[in-house]
Amino acid sequence: MDAMNELADRLFAAIEAGDSDALGAMYADDVKIWHNTDHIEMTKEQNLASLDALAAVTVSRRFSDVRRHEIDGGFVQQHVMHLDFGTHQGELPACLVVMVEDGLVTRVDEYFDNSTVAAFGRSASK
What we know:
Helix content: 25-40%
Number of domains: 1
Largest sheet: 6 strands, mixed
Number of helices: 4
Strand content: 35-45%
């Protein structure tokens, strides 16, 4: 689990830093990132653009309450992502199933409650 933990730590540190280059270096070229809220598989390029967009609208991103478990071919991580938008903050509890091959992330299935994301917009308009 040491190598898997090290990869996971680097993966989430890149997200916290808003570093799409570092994140992209950990992704296989054909990685797929799926979200339960829209059932669409994002490509590597789409997901990195999504991180860039998130970094552009947030002051900081931080993960807490991390629980990580190794599974065959990857890991599962539950966490709370804390987002600081400057004018307001939000928390997004989530669970990710991350598959890894040859030290690169090949698939991410991310599960979260979309109503939590919608609440971020409502908080911003208050």
